[in-house]
Design goal:
With 395 residues, the chain is α/β, with parallel strands linked by helices. It is built from 15 helices and 14 strands. The strands form 4 sheets. The protein has a 5-stranded parallel sheet with strand order 12-11-10-13-14. Strands 8-7-6-9 form a 4-stranded parallel sheet. The chain has a 3-stranded parallel sheet with strand order 3-2-4. The chain is globular and about 65 Å long. The structure holds FE3-S4 cluster.
Length: 395
C-alpha cells in the first residue's frame, strides 16, 4: 500500500504510541485486503461497546489504549451499550454489569468519542454525505450509509474502526471502490409492502438468498427511511449484505450496471414463510421495538397505539439518547410511560442481557432481532408488525 510521508512517520511513531499501534493495524489490514492507499475519514462509528459482547478482556484493552494516548481525530459515535446508561437500575441491570459497562464508556469518552451509543448515528447527528469515505462498524448502519446515503464504508471491526478514528484514515479497498459497488442480483418485489416488519421479512429472505452479494430491488413503491433501515438491517443479519440499491430511490441505483444479472421474484408467499419460520413463541413476556434504533416517527407511532391504554406486558422501544430527548419534548415518552411502556436509550434487545432480566419470549417487528434473539439472548420470538403485537398486550 502506498503511504504518504506523513503516514509513514505516523507508522514510525511520530504521533505517539497509540497512533503507531493503530497505523500498524490499518496497514496490515490494508495489505491483507489489497488496498492501494489510505483515504481520510471524518465520520466513524465504533462497535464493541456492550460489556456482554467484549467482556473483561475488551474492557481492559480499551483502558490500555487510553493509557497509550489514543485520541480520536474524526467525529466518532458508539454502537449500543449493554444498558441504558442513565436508567440502568430501572431496567433491572445488575450493579456489577453496570460498573463494567460504565468503565467501557469512560474509556471511550477519554478517547474523545461522543458518548452516543446508537446503531442509527445518521439519525443522531453523524450524517456523512454521498460518496464520502467513512469507517463504520455496525452492520445495519453500514448498510444504511452505503445504500441510502451513498457514503462508502466496509463493515469495520471494532479495532479497525477505532484505528480509523485515531489515525483519521481507513484503507481504500472493498466498498470504497466504485467497481465493487455493482449489484449482483435483481430482486423483483411483487407484493404490497405494508409495514416495517414486511421490510424486515423481505430483508431476511434476500439476505439468505444473496449472502454477501449486492441486491438491486425493483418494485418497491416509495419506502420510507424507516422501511429501508429495517430492510438493510435484516439483510445484514441473515446474510452479509453491506450495500443494496433500490430502483429510482437510492442514490447509486441509476448509476450501476444491471444488464445480464440473474433475478429472483419475492411475493407474499415468501414473506409469509419467513414470518412462519421465525415465530417460535406463543405469548410474549415483553415487546421490544427499535431494532435498528427507532426514529422519532416510530416512537410517535407506538405512542399513538398505546395512548390512554394500559399495557399488561412490558413494552420497550430502543432509540438513541438524542431521539429520546426529542420524544420527551413531544410528550411521546410521557404517553408511553403512563401506559406502562418505556423508551430505552443507549442499548437494544440484542446487546442487553434481557435473558437475565427474566424474559424468555420477545415480540418484535424487526427481521434482524428475529434472527439474533434466539441465539444471542435465548429468546423465543414473536415476529409481527407493531400494531398487531401491541394489540395483544393492551388491557
Ligand atoms: Fe441496532 Fe441492536 Fe438492532 S445494534 S440494529 S438495535 S441488534
Amino acid at each position: 500500500m502506498e503511504l504518504t510521508k506523513k503516514q509513514e512517520r505516523m507508522l514510525e511513531g511520530e504521533d505517539g504510541q497509540a497512533v503507531e499501534y493503530f497505523m500498524n493495524l490499518l496497514v496490515k489490514l490494508g495489505d491483507l485486503f489489497g488496498a492501494d492507499r489510505m483515504v481520510p475519514v471524518r465520520s466513524v462509528q465504533v462497535a464493541g461497546v456492550s460489556f456482554s459482547s467484549i467482556g473483561e478482556p475488551g474492557m481492559e484493552w480499551l483502558e490500555d489504549m487510553v493509557e497509550m494516548g489514543a485520541r480520536v481525530k474524526s467525529l466518532t459515535y458508539l454502537n449500543p451499550a449493554g444498558m441504558d446508561l442513565e436508567n440502568w437500575k430501572e431496567m433491572g441491570i445488575p450493579p456489577d454489569f453496570a460498573e463494567k459497562q460504565l468503565r467501557i464508556i469512560d474509556a471511550y469518552r477519554n478517547m474523545g468519542i461522543v458518548v452516543t451509543a446508537t446503531c442509527t448515528p445518521y439519525l443522531a447527528g453523524n450524517l456523512p454525505r454521498f460518496r464520502e469515505h467513512i469507517a463504520w462498524a455496525e452492520s445495519s448502519a453500514v448498510s444504511f450509509s452505503n445504500s441510502v446515503l451513498g457514503a462508502r464504508t466496509n463493515r469495520e471491526g471494532g479495532p479497525s474502526a477505532l484505528g480509523a478514528a485515531v489515525c483519521g484514515f481507513t484503507p481504500h479497498h472493498g466498498l470504497h471502490c466504485w467497481e465493487n459497488r455493482q449489484p449482483t442480483k435483481i430482486i423483483n418485489v411483487e407484493t404490497e409492502m405494508e409495514t416495517d416488519s414486511d421490510y424486515g421479512a423481505l430483508g431476511y429472505f434476500v439476505g439468505e438468498d444473496v449472502s454477501d452479494g449486492i441486491p438491486y430491488f425493483k418494485g418497491l413503491k416509495n419506502p420510507s427511511t424507516d422501511n429501508l433501515k429495517s430492510l438493510g438491517a435484516a439483510m445484514a443479519a441473515s446474510g452479509a449484505v453491506a450495500l443494496y440499491h433500490v430502483e429510482g430511490m437510492t442514490p447509486e441505483a441509476d448509476l450501476v450496471e444491471t444488464r445480464g444479472l440473474e433475478s429472483v421474484t419475492v411475493g407474499r408467499p415468501e414473506l409469509t414463510d419467513i414470518y412462519e419460520k421465525k415465530n417460535t413463541g406463543e405469548e410474549a413476556d415483553i415487546l421490544i421495538f427499535g431494532c435498528p434504533h427507532a426514529s422519532l416517527a416510530e416512537i410517535a407511532q407506538l405512542s399513538d397505539l398505546v395512548k390512554g391504554k394500559t399495557l399488561k406486558k412490558p413494552v420497550w422501544i430502543c432509540a438513541s439518547r438524542m431521539i429520546k430527548e426529542a420524544a420527551i419534548r413531544m410528550g411521546y415518552v410521557d404517553i408511553l410511560e403512563k401506559a406502562g411502556g418505556k423508551v430505552v436509550a443507549d442499548t437494544c434487545c440484542v446487546v442487553s442481557p434481557i435473558e437475565k432480566l427474566g424474559y424468555s419470549t420477545t415480540g418484535m417487528n424487526s427481521g434482524k432481532a428475529a434472527f439474533y434473539l434466539p441465539g444471542k439472548r435465548k429468546q423465543k420470538v414473536l415476529f409481527n408488525d407493531m400494531a398487531s403485537l401491541v394489540s395483544e398486550v393492551i388491557q
